[in-house]
Protein 1
Amino acid sequence: MRLARLLSTLALAMMSSAVGLPAFAHDFWIEPSTYRPEPLQRVTLRHRVGTHFLGDPVPRDEDLLVRFVSLSRNGELRVPGVHGMDPAGIAQAPESGTLVVAYESRGSVAELTPDKMARYAEDEGVASQLPAGWQGKPLLRDRFSRSVKSLLVVHGGGSAGFDRIAGLPFELVPLADPAALAAGGALPVRLLWQGKPMPGIQVAALSRLDPSQPLVARTDADGRVTFTLPRTGEWLIKAVKILPVTAGDGADFASVWTSLTFVAGEP
Amino acid sequence: MRSVRLAAAMRSARSHGGMRRAAPARRPIAPRAALLFSAALLLAGAARAHEIGAGRVEVFLARDGGFRVDLQIDPDLTLQRLELAAGEALTPGLADAPLRTALLARRDALRATATLTSGDVPLATSFDYVPVPPAANGRREVVVRLEGRLPAGKPDLQLSWSLPASRYALVVHREGDTGDLETDWVEPGEPGPPLRRASAPPSRLAVARQYLALGFTHILPRGLDHVLFVLGIFFFATRLKPVLAQVTAFTLAHSITLGLSIYGIFSLPSSIVEPLIALSIVYVAVENVLHPQLTPWRVAVVFCFGLLHGLGFAGALSSLGLPRSEFLTALVTFNLGVEGGQLAVIALAFLAVGSWARREVWYRSRVVVPASLAIAAVGLYWTVQRTF
């Protein structure tokens, strides 16, 4: 009886872990109702949290929100929305060009056991950034924040402004027009920290159609990384930066999660 | 386990599990659909591990040990997560029927995302796929319904659900519970709080005791307006007969309207009943001063006022709730408790004043008149307060 119980528990645990995916180091991104709006079309914007580009909808949280804006040739506009509601906001496309939607959150604290922390460090490539001696702590507190954006290109109106810098603390900026890419095309991206190129950070690119095979690279001295995208369609590029915290901050370290969502090709 | 428990109406916030501290008050939100989300934020505090998602589980616990767990899922997202876990190519945007077929083909994997245990014992359940009308925001939703029964002697149900990527709401309904709905916020993949099974229905004797006490305490000490009305009756006369005649009329009347109102046959809004109850206090007290003779008119007036007080008792009893299994028992014993409270008021007044002073010549001028005027003043104040 005990053996049967143990086996069934183990089986359930294995199946759960297979489907549940890691319960830590979750990505966060913006998912618009369309990446190719018509001129002046209203677009709903969803916040998503998850792994492998498969995310749960996250309602708008005004108390976490630092900045949620859309930027276009018309300037910067606050993204309106209702606290607690999904979609998190609505933006209006400009007459032409690229609409950049950017979201920045305050920090929230996550508690991680050392084994979860080790997997987090490996998955996100941040082991070298973590504070010394983290392996010896029974529980690590990570003050994580979001710094994400999405590119929407107005249908038939060119994609000028795809490289607009939103001024997020941690930001991915495409250096080539994603809308102009063909399958197999190269997309150079620059990673900025406080507006300056950030070297030595792992960056991953995931395709909506095959998120289990991320492209992974590390930024060079100029904060650049180039991905050869095997297919067009929806992509998520993401990176994590670890930051030290001051004593009394209530965390062992801080992390900033950036992401960029866009559709490659299909101008 | 890291979860946060709260009353759905946010009236009695209770922390649970790993919640480290309550967050500062957060801004209110207008849409009702977002109430739970806001409540979660209220209590989740800074120690939350992930953003709070839109995931939701409803658990129904029956008294006989039966349970139903409704996992509310996004079918497209769920299918893709299951496909990813199985190493299959992802299928985007299926129509409802093929989506259902695809998910049912993976029912074992889907079922395995939810682990239901009682103690350490895994529980077997049925599996049902229940489509739900699309949400207002256009999101497709499906309920995966798991039904089973707790083993005898096992009091708790515990759920661990690994499908979501963000903290989800666990809403608990217990058969027979009339209090606040219980909601927990649970981290995906972590065990939720042990959910106590619905308790057995109370016995008739237990209900009788409970509602007898509730009826008594509704008068003493909680029902000061009823106490003043009864004192108004007490100060009307020094002899027992007039007091008994009024108390009997009052009791008969409020029993009638209490029953009629509880059974939904007749009722009046409290905005009308409460000021009239206050006015009834003024009337009996003023009449004590102006016309202290027992007439059929006085008994009839007390009877009419009793009808009003009965509607007030019904309002109080409705807010307490009546057990379905012992509805009549609760109604009758509550009424008896009210009678007991009234008789206790009269007995206390008799012991305090009447027993030694009622035959004194100054009793009326120094006790009855000042006391009645004071009662009338309070009643008048309540009349104004309850009217405006």
Note: The first strand of chain B starts at residue 3 and ends at 7.
Protein 2
Amino acid sequence: MYPSFDSIIENLNAGKTYTFPGGVHPDDRKSLSNKDSIISPSIPPLLVIPLRQHIGSDGVCCVEVGEHVLKGQPLSQSSSPFSVPVHAPTSGEVVAIAPHVVAHPSGLTEMCVSIKPDGKDTWCELSPLTDYVEQDKSELVARICQAGISGMGGAGFPTHIKTSTSKPVEFLVLNGIECEPYITSDDRLMREHAWQIRQGLDILTHLISPKAIIVAVEDNKPEALEALNIACQDKDEYRVVSVETKYPAGGEKQLIQVLTGREVPRNGLPADVGVMMFNVGTCYAIADAILHGKPLIDRIVTVTGEAVKAPRNFKTMLGTPVSHLLEAAQYNPKKQKAPKVIMGGPMMGFTLSDATIPVIKTTNCLLVPSKKELVDDNAERACIRCSACADACPASLLPQQMFWHAKAKEYDKAEEYDLFDCIECGACAYVCPSEIPLVHYYRQAKAEIRLQRDEKNKAEKAKQRFEARNARLEREKLEREEKHRKAKEARLAANKAKEQAALNKEQTSPAPSDAKDKVAAALARAKAKKAALQAGNADTTSEVSETSPPTDDKKAQVAAAIARAKAKKAAQASNSTEQAVDATNTDTTSDDKKAKIAAAVARAKAKKAAQASNSTEQAVDATNTDTASDDKKAKIAAAIARAKAKKAAQQSDSQTQTVETNSDAPNAEQSPSVNSGTDDKTSDNDEQDEKKARIAAAVAKAKEKKAKQAQLEQSSEQSSSPQDASDSVVDDKKARIAAAVAKAKAKKAAQAKADSERENNTE
Amino acid sequence: MTMSNTILFAVIAIGILALVFGLVLGYASIRFKVEGDPLVDQIDAVLPQTQCGQCGYPGCKPYAEAIADGDDINKCPPGGEATIKKLADLMGVEPKPLDAAHGEEDVKKVAFIREDECIGCTKCIQACPVDAILGAAKHMHTVIAEECTGCDLCVDPCPVDCIDMVPVTQTTSTWKWDFSSSPKGDIPVKMVS
């Protein structure tokens, strides 16, 4: 386990510190810039403030072009907890909100607010919080967030996230190490503003309530150490510790190791080992934010290197273009082969692509090296496997192995060597005798791996969406099929129900079936089809079959012939078949001619009666009484009846005619069946349906007339085949005549409208 | 006598051991039986999941299955050389150059609908394999750039040709450290120390 709190305190009291593995001792070159005090350069003609200056997401811009802003006015709002706002560094007019080259090695653009200073440098209204001890901690944290403070040591982690930690903190460490060569911004800040740093430390102590407070300063900055010692002398719990100079002791994990002997776990945070660390610059900014109400709008930037005549530290407004600072430091381009400015220190910084790049919250140094300070870009030679890099690595990695794999683009293997634990301190590259820019290979490999991870995540997401889409399409297809199937079932069920209903009715008119019935059935089918086409009602069809059946032998045969012809067509209409068959059963009662004739007479009478609006029963009675009349009389009566009916039909009396059509046509068998004792049942039938059916049948017949005439020859031939061949000729003739008459009537009748009463009367 | 006993014991001991291990292995083979074909999933994980169909199969998974059944590994233009290399490693075959018949490796692109010209026909929505196009009938459509795989499948169905494939713009977060465009060795302190 790592050292306990007590043993660490003991060590610190004894003036002992731990150490971290590796590390290098480069020439610090700090004396170039740390001799002169911090000054403020003139206000630049244009300030460019990137909306994102730290790790995390952008804020949302809350000013408009043309708007006049005051110094310290927020330019963006933090939309997520990981975001902090940026503020106007001076008063002036917003002239552009557009992408601008930012401080990034890529030289790519990001959204920036450009402000043209008005030179008055007017502050917005500030609300200092001098009695912070009385205030709620969350209020202080909100203040720190609203002041836009993010870590000023380099990484730029939003400070309010750190300060609102819930984990118990044993050590609060103030990092005044500034181990990288050339940079002196923290050094000068500690020397000149030790008291404000102490105030900031007070605020942090109040917020975090640590068990111990350590202020760590490297021993190559004795003046800063002294200044902090003086500032913290009244509080014993503030331990100002001098740390041995070794690069990169200022790294967070390394400094924790130096002070406490504890190692921050990989993928872990300092809070995991009970440590919280702040940069002195951040601490200064926190004091500014709380005690003076000032947001983070400027910072100390070291401008150094041998290509500037007056290297020193500048209290620079954020957004100041690099070129303006170089001017203030009297940049001499002649000392460089090509203009080259490094943002950050010599070990970890990156070369800027553009002199208009603005200073941001994490910019601690601008290094302008002369020719003799720079390594030749093409000096890289082959790795000689000396392992000096492994000795220098402060994170105990194997830089050489990572280099091999990174160079060969074997990123997974590089990762196996813990590439992501590399802090990119540059110690390995510094010691490399072959001048290999190792860190650059690691940076490239890391970027590539991150990108691959992103792509992998994206691919995974795409796959999920693709699969979800396929699943959806499949589901929709099934749903569609299911819908169709259900609709079909419903249709079949409806049909069945109709059949059932029809069957129920038909069962009320029982009938023995024989060969003739089939003929009748065929005819019925044909009619039914037509009727179905016109009436669109299955019930109607069945009724027609029921009520219009030819049963007499000869007539039936003729009818059968016609029916067969029709049946051919009718066969296509499968729906009506069963109904027709049912009808066959009902239509079977074969009777003699007399009966039919009588029936015809009766119908004719009934018609008249109906026209006189007589009741159904009268018609039935008439039928019964007339049944007994003999052949001749019956025929005459029938003829008269027909003639009358004809006239009546012409007078647009549709129903009766329809019925007569049925009776006079070769398929008139209704009345006899009534006489044979089934009249009650017949009359039980649904009158409406029968009526409709007959009308439909009549219409159908009329239409079929021409077709029948054409088929008459054939019909007669076929008619000879059935049993009663002797009577067939005479009856054929009659039948045809009757049929013709019926058809003619039907034709006219078809034009007429329906009338249920008369229909009933014929029954 | 002792000699034959020793041999007998040895044979018995070995026999018992063989039996025990046989039972253990037999149990393990049932208990830890691997369902399905993990190879197809591995191949599928390597493929870029653009679902573009340029390989001739309706999506990445069917191509993964085809590769597992012995199809060529060089039919995926969106994946390019990197994917071919990974597939070659996975399948234990030699990497071969991308089959030009299926297209050429291109920079990553996303679809962009020129919204003024969109007539709202929804044809592109039906074509998109990852549901990355938003819109309704007779209303303007738009591409969710984050979700677009750049598969090109929406371009052809558009009756008014209002869909462009635009290269993805690089941001600071997607930027790759490029040695050719940025200098390598800037550790100035080396020279003076």
Note: Chain B has a mean pLDDT of 85.
Protein 3
Amino acid sequence: MPSNHLIYIVDDETSIAKLLEVWVSQKWGYRARLFSDGETCLHALDEGADLVLLDLMLPGIDGVAVLQEIKRQKPELPVIVLSAQAKIEVALQTLKLGATDYFSKPVDLPKLEIGIKNALRLADLTREVERLRQDAETKVHFDHIVAQSGEMADVFKLVSKVKESDIPVLILGESGTGKELIARAVHFNSGRKDRPFVVVNCASIPKDLLESELFGHERGAFTGAIQRRVGKFEQANGGTIFLDEIGELDLSLQSKLLRAIQEKQFNRVGGNDVITTTARLISATNRDLREEVKQKRFREDLYFRLSTFPVMLPPLRERKSDIVLLAEHFLRQFSEEQKKPHLRFSRKALDDLYNYPWPGNVRELENAIQRGVVLADAAELTERELPLSVQTYSGFESTERPAFSFAKSNDVVVPFEKLKEDAIRNALRITHGNIVQAAQRLKIGRATLYRLMQKYKIEAD
Amino acid sequence: MAQSKLRIMSPEEAVREYHVRTEIATRLSHEFRTPLTSIIGYAETIMCSPDLTAEQRDEFAALIKKEGERLVRLVTLIVEQSIQGSASQSDPSIFK
């Protein structure tokens, strides 16, 4: 299959260089470029080489020195050494210096084809992994968490102080406030960033399986345990384990977790070997753990261990200055994905977004914008593309709730007349029966309000 | 009666002899394997490439002949050297 990869062939023997060119380009479909010495190859290293086929006995700089220089300048560039010396010591030396493979001459051409394919695939995968790693690191860098409010600035300051320490961190906050994002930011900004970051959602795993999930199990530990399994604590060794929704952990498992934190040791389910862990623990919950302790549903000693360094994430409604910033961020992200690059919010849509209390926090806002971007077909995302719960909320003060919330019953169709009736009853309740104020707040005329009250048989108290 | 050529070498001479022999073996390997790479490689190319043009086929056959002749010259040189003297009197650079 033709490939766009460019292969440099470095050999002073013209007939061999030409032979390799025939096979590399005509038979295997790569692009090839020939060099008769190491020096000219080194000068052309920045010109797009994806792999180098390198002879060792070269005029001027010998092949070993060329290999060393390539690895110094471009450690990720695969080099396959072809040598007529056929000495095992030479092969070992070149492999130690970073050559991807070694072939003695006369070259077994079908084997060389496989060697080239594997080396290119490995280099492509290495590049891809590096790109994804950088992408992941960028996304979780504190500078890249979208927030401008003073409340979040305080959180970042607090979290920055603890990133290099190993003490357990407990992240508290309502659902959707970004607890996992903060946990990731702590991990990827710490000295452990090259080690695993392992997430366990304690609420999503059945209680019976959670112990084995966390600590692993030995073969035959229970029905279905057909082989030994390494748990999340072992996987996270040297890195960070993030236990989300830790308030859901049952009491028996809490004592095992306490041992893992205090003594840094645990046993796999059904095993006698004591496993030592160096994983750093970050946990999160949207429950009030102190209340859980009072209710005897959460061990007090575990609570004190976990909450050595508590971090409270404020809900979105308490940091309103972040709403528009986040909304614009999500609009950019989703409009790019949906190929609607010029999409903007209408003034009214922004007002509605700002006024809504976002009980589902950033996650709810993100979903609302994603939905809006899909629905919007013009250059503007208007309030009509926002969820009904956001649209209908705008007429109420922050302390006032609509009589009916669409957010909680998306699959229920409410008759329009019922909505109007509820809106009027709600307005009259809030204004204590003051018709003038109710009409103003409903943005309708007084006469209209009277007419509708008659229609719906509503009496002002 | 022919005089025996056997004699005992000093340790320094033995080390030198070893290095010279190794160097000669390396050079020889290289000098044999280089034309063989071309000969085997181009023969394989002709055998595995039914789509070669007539010019290419002629060119590759000519390269096989040329590299074969190189091998013949090498064999001649090695035979002459082995008649003339021992390894300790040889100069590995003659194979360059």
Note: The helical segments of chain B are 11-48, 54-84.
